[in-house]
Design goal:
- Chain C: Pfam families: COXG.
- The complex is a heterotrimer of chains A (790), B (164) and C (167).
- Chain A is of the alpha+beta class and 790 residues long.
- Helices cover 27% and strands 24% of the residues of chain A.
- Chain A has three domains: 25-33 and 487-633, 2-Layer Sandwich (Aldehyde Oxidoreductase, domain 4); 36-144 and 202-294, Aldehyde oxidase/xanthine dehydrogenase, a/b hammerhead (Aldehyde Oxidoreductase, domain 3, Alpha-Beta Complex), CATH 3.90.1170; 297-473 and 637-786, Aldehyde Oxidoreductase, domain 4 (2-Layer Sandwich), CATH 3.30.365.
- In chain A, the strands form eight sheets. Chain A has a seven-stranded mixed sheet with strand order 3-5-1-13-10-11-12, with helices on both faces. Chain A has a six-stranded mixed sheet with strand order 7-17-16-15-8-31. A four-stranded mixed sheet of chain A has the order 20-28-29-30, sandwiched between helices.
- In chain A, helix 9 (338-346) packs parallel to helix 10 (378-396) and helix 17 crosses helix 18.
- Chain B is an alpha+beta fold and 164 residues long.
- Chain B folds into two domains: 5-82, Beta-grasp domain (Ubiquitin-like (UB roll)), CATH 3.10.20.30; 87-162, DNA polymerase, domain 1 (Orthogonal Bundle).
- Chain B is built from six helices and five strands.
- Chain B has helices at 26-33, 78-83, 88-97, 106-117, 125-131, 143-162, and strands at residues 5-11, 14-20, 52-55, 58-61, 74-76.
- In chain B, strand 3 and strand 4 (58-61) form a beta hairpin.
- In chain B, helix 3 crosses helix 6.
- The termini of chain B are far apart.
- Chain C is of the alpha+beta class and 167 residues long.
- Chain C has an eight-stranded antiparallel sheet with strand order 2-3-4-5-6-7-1-8.
- In chain C, a hairpin with a 3-residue loop joins strand 4 and strand 5.
- In chain C, helix 2 packs across helix 3.
- The chains are: A alpha+beta (790), B alpha+beta (164), C alpha+beta (167).
Chain lengths: 790, 164, 167
Amino acid sequence: MTAISDSPFRAANQYIGKSLPRPGAKRLLAGRGRYTDDIVVPRMLYAAFWRSPFAHARLGAISIEAAAAMPGVHRVFIGADFAAICKPWVGTLSHFAGMKSAPQLPLATEKVLWAGHPIAMVIAETRAQAEDALEAIEVELDELEPVVDIDAAQLPDSTLVYEEAGSNVIFRTRIESGSTASAFEDAEVVEAEFRFGRHTAVTMELRSILADYDPSDGRLTVHQSTQTPYQFHDIYARHFGLSEAHVRVVAPDVGGSFGMKLHLYHEDMAVVGASILTGRPVKFTADRMESFLTDIHARDHRVRARLAISADGMFRGIEVDDVTGVGPFSAYPRTSVVEGNQVVRLIGAAYRLKDYRADLTVVAQNKTQMSQYRAVGHPIACAVTERLVDLAGARVGLDPFEIRRRNYVTQDMYPHKTPSGYSFERLSLEECLDKLHEAMDYEALRKDQARLREAGIHRGIGIATYVEITNPSPAFYGVGGAHISAQDGCVLKVTSSGGIQCLISLSELGQGAEAIVGQIVAEGVGINPNLVRVITGDTDMTPVGGATWACRGAGIGGETALQASKKLKGRILEIAGAILQCSPGKLDISDGQILDQGGNIRMSLGELANLAYFRSDLLPKGIQPELTVAHHYAPSGYPFAFTNGIHGSLVEVDVETGFVKILKHWVIEDCGRILNPLLVDEQIRGGVVQGLGAAFFEECLYSKSGQLLNGSMADYLVPMACEMPDIVIGHVETPTQDTELGAKGCGEAGTAAASGAALNAVNDALSPFKASITQLPMTPERILKALRVV
Amino acid sequence: MSEQVSITVKVNGSIVRRMVEPRLTLLDFLRRDLGLTGTHAGCEMGACGACLVSLEGRAVHSCLMLAVQADDLSVETIEGLSENGSIADLQAAFFERNALQCGYCTPGVLITARDCLSTGGVPSRDEIRDALSGNYCRCTGYEAIVDAIEVVARMRAANAEGSK
Amino acid sequence: MDITGTYRISARREVVWAALNDPETLARCIPGCKELDAKSPEEMAAKVALKIGPVSATFAGTVRFEDIVAPAGYTLVGQGNGGLAGFAKGRAVVRLTDEGTDTILTYDAKADLAGKIASLGSRLIQSTTRKLADQFFAKFAETLGIASAVSDQSETADAADQEAHST
């Protein structure tokens, strides 16, 4: 791994950049993880929901008396109960002009909008008793025609999901740069129509929330499996009319999120509302089927795209039409248009292009709501772009590596602005390409492929370049009016024995946010990481901040921790200097000891803390015993810190059965300065496997009447160990100059390009048969259809 | 709603006597009645492996068993295995290799790993992947888990050699 | 979901027709039927216990006879509320033709599920429905006092039984 860094910290303590294991993992290995469903509080009640079996219907009478009388049942709620205390939410943002979306309340009031929409809620002594009571509830539903097709939904005679909008189109936008008309004139054109299967996160830990409202002092405490307690803190206070100072949201251990647990769910609001109305703690944990029906979905897109090239393979222009079928309303508070917006802005981004036109249409449907899920839009943009690039290469007789090399944005072009308006500080496209070529031993793979083809064995090699948004600025959400922070805060407290408690506004989901912050603080101050305790996820304790999403933890959170630790070190040395009667500039801290210029230990941090806390009588005049510092950092340079990388995929396609064996996968990635290589590698691996799930297995299937047909883990296929390959990873480091730390994000890079590389690999395997596929997932049936066998 | 039934189960080495509804799953019994929350619910249909426990020494899906079926039997959960040190080498290897992220699948994976290595010898990576094919993990992509199990298999085999 | 089938019944068409229109006979033959009461010549109230995959429930609803052309056939239209399990709707076009002293019965059935039963049972709906149809006709033949109705020829099942529109 190349260590490119001019950080002054490199020489001294060197925890940053080290592959240290995560201190937080030991608990989890002992079965002592504390996930929201594990938490039990006195007098807690359990919630269960009566859900609409129909995708679209008018809601009539609901009879709950029998249910309310059943054993253990405390109360049964319907829509009107929560409408009285909860402000409806609308998932629009002002910077997506013209967005329309139906206001939502915790339980359905007049209409049900998707199969799974909660209509009534039972709270009881046990979940089983609550579910028993559900069976006694009767609901009158008048079926309406469901909107389930993105084309039919746009026809003038289509049923409307939200009548007041007048249309099922939630949002439309066009991006135009240069003139694609002239780019396509007299050009070679490659084009395709792509379909991407609807996905769901399938986190191991199901969504869970425990709300506890104490009416005696008006305090609401919510434990929630969430990626962002700060956002929910704001939402519960605002929508239920509570003062923020009296609301606490805690994210305990979270068993996987991948963006899914960023969004507001009806059940969350119902649980909070139920606790407020009853003054009792109320817990809801989704079961797996509820999870399939209500967790946000993602990736439901149909993209028509064409690439104009000159005869020598130079890209001239791209035209894109992306139609995405979301749910019946836009998700809150992050909307259901960000994914499409990113798709149309990321296509072609890594390549030299001036002429670009993209249309995005976001269409409401009576299906589960859709919103941000790991790598948001990148997998689709990457698959579309990289497939077109391979088609272009085939058209002009250039190898996939060569056509990319010829068309990449080059080193002398930075800073570079894409036709869609994204700014690149500096990428390492060519270097990653060359490294992949070497890591794959590409020539040998091609030789093997040729030899095996003669024996009737069909291997395919595919590559896919990605650029990835990380470290987002307020341009993402804040400017549109969302109460989603783009900055982070960090409080450092020295303990009386010389350790450090660090409270920071990132979220730990197992990716290692706490670990890297611990490494940064340890190096920044000058103590062993074992003495640093990082605390996250509690709005009563940690500062307001952005938490974890869009790969912001390492870059933004890390910089926050770094600057805070520099501040603390300065404070410590100021006090030490006064005590030792020498200039702070002549002192340093190493391994918890305060050293002078000669390297002599003058005192320990523990001794200094002791003095400060317990013997302030011994401190020199004018020195306050201040060993707590706070620092907030907001990104201010580039709106996003783009990373880049490239994936390689090697597959073997059985042309008789359509089954694909994934033989191997490579990733060369550049996420700027690497803080912990072990954690980066494992983020990449996890992301790749999620991307391969998209490529081959995962799809939410709906019937014509809007029923989710595969709402269980038996029918929605997720990647399991026996189907996944070993993944080879290499690194390049191009730090960002926007921060002292230089780190960018890496959490989504694995997912961004894995499916694109696999798509190209399968198409490469099928090329002798003049067969091609542009639909994910590439199921055996679809591959056989492409081969014209079925 | 039916009458409660008395069951006697040895859990992590201690005899436990409780009254339970016949419809109560072993998983819910462990988590709710005994507070052993290290075993997790993932799918309630035996597809994901999060609920695996060791029953009479073999891995079983506690979501597919009723508590009454465990009457007079012996169950070990991740808490017990962790406290008696029997999977300490696996836990250490997982820790070093970062073979877990969110940790939700981890107790089930450790139960599978223990079973996989119980016959001795060093399984191939493919054999390890096969053994893990009932454990769903969304975070790690599996490779680090395979690495960690492989390391422990080799270590145990080397120790067995050494003590001959 | 769309399934078709053919049965050869060793009885004359008039006999078969009468039995197919007799609520008592139908009640005995419909698998899981708890109640079947004629409310009018064209409509019956029904309670049927169904198990599709892991989901079992009692569906309460109605069965109507439509497009009645005696003794050539009719269309049965049923819909049932399974409470938490969901809703089931079905429509079967039944045709009878003479073949000597036998009757050839063909049916073309469509079913639409909603709710839990759709999410968990879709994969099994086709095989389950076929099994239920076979059970029905076995009982039907038994009721008529004849050897079991032989299922004749290939049963063309609609490959796209999931009606997933993005295939």
